[in-house]
Amino acid sequence: MKDDNFLRANNAQHLWHPMGHPGDLRSHAPTIITGAEGSSITDIDGHRTIDAVGGLWCVNLGYSNDTVKEAIAKQLYDLPYYSAFGGTSNPTAIEASYAVREFFAEDGMTRVFFTSGGSDSVETCLRLARQYHRLRAEPGRTKFLSLKKGYHGTHFGGASVNGNNRFRINYEPLMPGCFHLPSPYPYRNPFGEADPAVLAQNIAAAMEDEIAFQGAGSIAAFIMEPIQGAGGVIVPDASFMRLMREICDRHGILMIADEVITGFGRSGDWTGSRHWGVQPDMMCTAKGITSGYFPVGAALMNDKVAEVFENAGEDGGIYHGYTYSAHPVGAAAVTACLSETLRLDTKTNAAARGAQLYEGMLALQEKYDIIGDVRGGHGLMTGVELVSDRAAKTPMDMATMKRIHTATYEAGAMVRLGMHNILMSPPLVITEAEVQQIIDGLDAGFAAA
Ligand SMILES: Cc1ncc(COP(=O)(O)O)c(C=O)c1O
Question: Which contiguous run of DSSP H or E holds residue 27?
Fold first, then answer.
């Protein structure tokens, strides 16, 4: 390893960072994280903080799970790689697909297509949704519906259904035939409606209207996050996902749940869909599937979808996949991670610590006028929306956001900024004292602003 001076001098000189400005990062070097333990991270200066971001909504088991590390290390010696294209397979991938199937049995997901991450999983679901309709002799069903403020990764398909223009405009034109409905976001919404249940009804009506306008027979699928993560931790009314499911069913539209964040316990249930009492047709997963220890994702299908492919003639072939789909080392990480997730019952801790974090933020809202909205209370996903004028709901400027971020970090908690939102998704194994440290860190950060 090169010394610290080399790392500091070279950081961002050659390495382009995802979601970063290459010019800005050259002059304002990013924080270099050199180590991690439990729910904490340490930077190159030896400063240790609670990782309230959980890596990037993914390190559900924390950084010190030896069972997962040992499974990965062992697999590197047994079989570091073999392709799962067409005619070959490997034992760990078979075992992992069994573990995933068991994990999602209650959601009705029975088939697993491994990918290398969340964007791949979204792309896989979108493509297979179109192929499903072709196989059912409805090739005209090619369009997609999604929600504003949704985040579905950065591939062209995922970006096309994304509901935040920041991730779209530089890369347009995107895929045609993608239409966006309002987000179930009571704090700011086009209906001016603060009651989440009424808002859910309004969006359902907008969806019916859009389907009538497009023609139901032209729509392949509707994709949504059970709780919108990157868009600001937007928690819909408990009725919302069920309303969407009923509409999809009525019009022959597949429902894809993007569980890349909400899956594997983060929502306080094993999946976000289960949290809302809904069984989708397909699920996109990643992140918590390996707790970030290895890049893996999975697209999941129910019997209804799968049987159409399995019983089709030649056209049922899936001409889609990734070199690292069903990677044996990734698969070993999946099996170990799911078994640890269940053994530690991480969803129960996520629900309890999530409530603590949410209540902590509500208490800070009483203290600081700059907190416009606090969202969460469903597992360890918490969003705090900052405003410079509470009555006018004016979004906080980025210079102040960055000052709060720095002061919070110095006080012992790494949080994430999503525009004028503070986003938190710490490891699901976090302790009560560590959550308190996040709350205290933000208290110091807001005081500094
Ligand atoms: C809901 C959702 N879908 C898809 C993705 C894309 O996943 P990845 O970054 O692994 O490609 C993300 C990433 O944060 C996500 O939050």
Answer: helix 22-27
| DSSP tag of 423 | E
With respect to CATH, is domain 67-343 assigned 3.40.640.10?
yes
Please list the rounded mean pLDDT of every run of 10 residues in the chain (449 residues). Answer: 85 89 88 97 97 98 98 98 96 98 98 98 98 98 98 98 95 97 94 92 98 98 98 98 98 99 98 98 98 98 98 96 98 98 98 98 98 98 98 97 98 97 98 98 96
Residues in the chain: 449
**Best residue among 19, 58, 151, 425 to mutate for probing ligand 1, ranked by most atoms within 8 Å of CB:** 151
CA of 57 to the centre of ligand 1 (A): 9
Instruction: Please give the model's pTM, rounded to 2 decimal places.
Output: 0.98
DSSP summary character for residue 326: T
The segment(s) of the chain belonging to CATH 3.40.640.10 are 67-343
The token pair that represents 135 in the structure block: 């196989």
The residues with which 147 forms a beta bridge, in sequence order, are 181
In the chain, where does the domain assigned CATH 3.90.1150.10 lie? 31-61+345-448
Q: Does domain 31-61+345-448 have CATH number 3.90.1150.10?
A: yes
**Distance, CA of 67 to CA of 244 (rounded, Å):** 39
By the 8 A CB rule, do 242 and 276 touch? Answer: yes
